[in-house]
Amino acid sequence: QLNVTIRSSLQNLREKIDQLKDLLLRAVSTHQITQLEGDRRQNLVDDLLTRQKQLQASYKNEGTETDVIRSSLMTGGVKRGVTNPWLLEESEETRGLGFDDLRQQQRRIIEEQDAGLDALSSIISRQKQMGQEIGNELDEQN
């Protein structure tokens, strides 16, 4: 009975991954998401497909490195230099925040950046004005 459950769960996983691939293709083709975001999501779907194949191989006891496969499934894979974004730790300032809270925090940060850019703009404008006045004074002196 456990084998039947595992086999059906693996089949269900495969079907869900195929659905994700179809939905992703549709979202990219209808421009619901950008191509860059589509590529990022495609990488995640490919990672899921790889893990599904590893699970399938582990279930069938294919390959000689089943312990390595099992541990790599839980630690983010055996790829070198590629980190899984879902396994990264969340920062302290965003931990426990909901979607609306994160959006509000992002807006606040953008407002602070805009205020900083406005201050920088006024400083640069003042320096431009000073430079023009110095140039005018030099012309008069000459």
TrEMBL record:
Residues 107-142 form the T-SNARE coiled-coil homology domain. The keyword Transport does not apply. Residues 3-30 form a coiled coil. Keywords: Coiled coil. PROSITE patterns: T_SNARE. InterPro entries: T_SNARE_dom (IPR000727). This is Syntaxin-8. It comes from Podiceps cristatus (Great crested grebe).
